[in-house]
């Protein structure tokens, strides 16, 4: 690390010119956390602006926070911790704005079973987060004889009534983002990437049928402007048609907080009668690093009198498993993609009101998987709300120093995962 204040290379614990600027790896760690959080906010704010919604308060905070990460004007740990938690507050606000923009445009999501096979004929696979891109593509292709499939974070689109009404929204193909090289290569149709959860294709594979739009770009792919999908649709029609591969397997999604809260009275009664013992929110970002099978094993070992809530692409570790029901309430409830963490927060707050207790007193435990900036922003929102006892893994983020992680553990009881058996025992016997 180089200190621009004293123009010296910094050591692991502070500046080599001790006392000149005092910048340490802990300050650097907080600045990194803040920058990752800002990237998450920026992603959500972009989608909201595309739908005509924005917040001057959020925009002003981003300027304030960026100034304090690039100019080295402060080296006070407590001030940076306060700024990091404020980032969580702003992320919560921008997720609320985006949720309102989505529901205003596309309606409140409702639970739906999504087909996972393919239909005979031309197809387009849509990956990423931008629901407006999907909507415009569905509008432009509704009489083209092309079926549209969702991939990864686009799965929750099926829950929105204004998207579900298109009969050629045919189902979901594939799973989490890190599997896309294999899945895209086996999909014979055209592919549209709407956000940055996209990998550079291997040479000689699907680059010639990969399209990007908006702020997404891949070298060699065809970039579409102004949401004009004419070339994408034409490409899909020129490619070998998909084969009919019907599947009895379906994935349930669409549990927006408005849908879950419609079941609140029944859920509360099941908890009070002892039929629901505990809630686990298991979700976050997925990845290829060893150790992420923990989340599959964890959900498989969750007792049958417990409910599993999930969101973001971490759910692809287990969302095809059969978990059954508790008196009509599915044991696996898919809230949606990463920005739908706002719905999870609303559910937790509503349950705390129903039980007349704080969120930390609920029979609820969060078990999250780390990867990228949106996961950081969401964690900061949870810490801003003073949610304690969160389990994270599979390893601590490299950008969090040991001292800062110790502070988070002390202040928020943040825990690293161990083994599914040990963690479940610790949670359920507390």
Would you mind describing this structure in some detail?
Helix content is 40%, strand content 16%. It is built from 14 helices and 18 strands. The strands form five sheets. A six-stranded parallel β-sheet has the order 6-5-4-7-8-9, covered by helices on one side. The longest helix is centred in the N-terminal third of the chain and has 30 residues, at 77-106. It is globular, with a radius of gyration of 22 Å. Residues 1-22 have low confidence and may be disordered.
Task: Walk me through the topology.
Blueprint: E1 2-3, E2 8-9, H1 25-50, H2 56-70, H3 77-106, E3 112-115, E4 123-127, H4 131-141, E5 147-151, H5 161-164, E6 169-172, H6 180-186, E7 190-193, E8 210-213, E9 222-224, H7 230-238, E10 250-253, H8 257-261, H9 264-272, E11 278-284, H10 293-301, E12 306-311, E13 325-326, E14 329-330, E15 332-336, H11 341-354, E16 364-369, H12 373-384, E17 391-393, H13 402-412, E18 415-416, H14 420-428
Parallel strand pairs: 4-5, 4-7, 5-6, 7-8, 8-9, 11-12, 11-16, 12-15, 16-17, 17-18
Antiparallel strand pairs: 1-2, 3-10, 13-14
């Amino acid at each position: 690390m180089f200190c621009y204040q004293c123009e010296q290379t910094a050591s692991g614990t502070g500046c080599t010119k001790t006392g000149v600027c005092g910048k340490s790896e802990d300050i650097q760690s907080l600045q990194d956390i803040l920058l990752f959080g800002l990237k998450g906010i920026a992603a959500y704010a972009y989608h909201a602006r595309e739908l005509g919604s924005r917040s001057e308060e959020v925009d002003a905070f981003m300027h304030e926070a960026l100034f304090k990460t690039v100019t080295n004007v402060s080296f006070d740990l407590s001030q940076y911790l306060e700024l990091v938690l404020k980032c969580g507050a702003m992320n919560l606000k921008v997720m609320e704005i985006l949720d309102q923009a989505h529901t205003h445009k596309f309606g409140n999501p409702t639970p739906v079973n999504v087909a996972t096979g393919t239909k005979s004929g031309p197809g387009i696979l849509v990956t990423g987060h931008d629901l407006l891109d999907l909507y415009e593509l569905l509008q432009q292709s509704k009489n083209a004889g092309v079926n549209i499939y969702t991939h990864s974070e686009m799965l929750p689109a099926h829950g929105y009534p204004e998207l579900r009404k298109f009969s050629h929204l045919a189902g979901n193909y594939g799973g989490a983002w890190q599997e896309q090289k294999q899945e895209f290569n086996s999909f014979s149709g055209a592919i549209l990437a709407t956000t940055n959860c996209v990998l550079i294709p291997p040479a000689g594979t699907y680059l010639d049928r990969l399209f990007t739009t908006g702020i997404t770009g891949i070298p060699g792919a065809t970039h579409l402007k102004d949401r004009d999908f004419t070339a994408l649709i034409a490409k899909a029609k020129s490619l070998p048609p998909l084969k009919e591969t019907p599947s009895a397997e379906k994935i349930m999604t669409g549990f927006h907080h408005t849908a879950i809260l419609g079941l609140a009275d029944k859920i509360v009664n099941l908890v009070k009668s002892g039929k629901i013992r505990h809630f686990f929110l298991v979700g976050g970002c997925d990845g290829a690093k060893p150790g992420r099978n923990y989340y599959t094993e964890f959900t498989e070992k969750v007792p049958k009198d417990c409910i599993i809530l999930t969101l973001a692409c971490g759910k692809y570790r287990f969302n095809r498993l059969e978990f059954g029901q508790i008196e009509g309430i599915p044991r696996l409830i898919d809230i949606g993609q990463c920005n739908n963490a706002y719905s999870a927060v609303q559910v937790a707050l509503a349950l705390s009101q129903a039980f007349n207790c704080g969120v930390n007193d609920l029979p609820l435990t969060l078990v999250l998987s780390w990867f990228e900036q949106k996961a950081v922003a969401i964690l900061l929102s949870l810490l801003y709300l003073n949610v304690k006892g969160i389990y994270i893994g599979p390893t601590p983020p490299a950008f969090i120093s040991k001292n800062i992680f110790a502070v988070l553990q002390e202040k928020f009881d943040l825990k690293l995962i161990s083994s599914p058996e040990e963690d479940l025992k610790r949670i359920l016997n507390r």
